[in-house]
Amino acid sequence: MNFIEDVIQSFPFSREAVISLDADGNRTVHYFSHLFARSLGLSGAMLEQGVRRGDVVLIMLGSRVEWVISMLACFRMGAVALPCSPQLTREDLAWRIVETGASLAIGEPEYLAELPEGLPYLDLADLERIFDEDLDQATPAKSADLSPDDPALIVFTSGSTARPKGVVHSQRYLTGQATQAEHWLGAKPGDLVWCTAAPGWSKSSRNAFIAPWLRGAKALLVEGRFDPETRLRIAREQGVGVLCQAPTEYRILARRTELSPTPGIHRMVSAGEALNPEVIDAFRDATGLEIADGYGQTETGAVTGMRPGDSLAGREGSMGRPLPGIETRVVEDELQVKVSTSPTFFSRYLDGSSFEGEWWPTGDLVEADEDGFLFHQGRNDDLISSAGYRIGPVEVESALLTHPAVAEAAAIAAPDPERGSVVKAVVVLRDGIPGDALAEDLQRHCREATAPYKYPRIVEFVDELPKTASGKIRRAELRARQV
């Protein structure tokens, strides 16, 4: 198998593949013919740099077409793509290079400046020369005849509870995205899909362009940081049909912008952590669309999701049902995935260890309703045990977020000499003056919005919450600050 032959060459070369907007808003249409030719040329340049089948190529590019081309060049020759977040520090990069044994880097100059000395690289100027058809080019690499078990991609976990771990995905991971592309992402042939996740994260590696192409759709790439004032305007102007965002982005849009109907968009999806029901309600009321939540891990790929056609009425906050063909079970409140049924389950960690069991323990706590829809209750390590009660942080955070003064919130356990632990709320305000009066009002609000034993007995106001680069709240860091 080979992604280039099996997917790219299955489309007419005259077909649009990627629409890109640069930092100045300039729009460019990239056809499959462009991507094929440029990835061909880049594979030859990589050969000249000593890259061979199985070698790791570190990619440090933002949301631009060169990122896609670099990934495709790796897939063509059987090199292993290591997309990295542009936000990584020099220490982060040095550690990843040691862990993976990367043999080449491809990136933007400002990101490459953070690399340790000694690693060969190609920068944007190099890529421009490689893509210039009027210049002599290296002989392209041959299209590798790959096994489904050959490595294709390395993605590091978000590091929300420990140091990030390198996860190796095989070639089958790429085409295995077809299930979630149809039954969760919901892209249709001809759609323009905008997955806003930055390169380097699991969601972007599968949904920025791979999943859309598997559905006959095209991808939108937009350079620049998240700007709530322009996000939905860009989606409307570009004719986006499917919008895939992080929960944090939906929350910010709901609280800091004036939502309005979004003609053209027929599907909004979210994944990464539980999306609060009140955010879903805000989008439904303003746009007529429900945000379809989904769930997966770096190791598993997509596992559950609200499918096209599923109604969220009465199920706001649900992460959906297991995707077709994927088996799950709940053991002592923990979600587990049957490995043999997941088309995107990882091969191994970088240290060589792999999972040999039948059921993968996700470490995520869920509840299921009578129809099999799952609701995320938090991580095992985020669970708050207070006076014999087991309290998941998500319900507390959801209650807090229904208060008009609250922009963001995290619930964690705080030591207590009598109860063992109590619920502590760490709150970023939208309005209001921090102090005892507002803290008491938030406590009263939570007692009314959820079970009284779940209300936060301690409220702390902060300017911002610590998060991973993918937008997940670092509850472990908040807990550590108390020690």
Labels describing this entry:
483 residues; alpha/beta; Rossmann fold; GMP Synthetase, Chain A, domain 3; 2 domains; four-stranded parallel β-sheet
Concise description?
Helices cover 29% and strands 27% of the residues. It is α/β, with parallel strands linked by helices and 483 residues long.
Low-confidence runs (pLDDT<50, min 5 residues)? Answer: none
Order of strands across the main sheet: 2-1-10-9-11-12-13-14-15-20-19-17-16
| CATH C-level name of the largest domain | Alpha Beta
Look at the structure and name the CATH superfamily of the largest domain: ANL, N-terminal domain
Number of domains: 2
Portion of residues in beta strands equals 25-35%
Helical segment tally?
A: 16
Helix/strand class: alpha/beta
* Number of beta strands: 25
Spatial extent as radius of gyration: 23 Å
Largest sheet: 13 strands, mixed
> Mean pLDDT, as a whole number?
92
Give the quaternary arrangement of the chains.
single chain
Which fold does the CATH topology of the largest domain refer to? Rossmann fold
N-C termini distance: 52 Å
Structure description:
With 483 residues, the chain is an alpha/beta fold. It has two domains: 3-376, ANL, N-terminal domain (Rossmann fold), CATH 3.40.50; 383-480, 2-Layer Sandwich (GMP Synthetase, Chain A, domain 3), CATH 3.30.300. The chain is built from 16 helices and 25 strands. The strands form five sheets. It has a 13-stranded mixed sheet with strand order 2-1-10-9-11-12-13-14-15-20-19-17-16. A four-stranded parallel sheet has the order 4-3-5-6. Strands 7-8-18 form a three-stranded antiparallel sheet. Helix 2 crosses helix 3 (65-77). The relative contact order is 0.09.
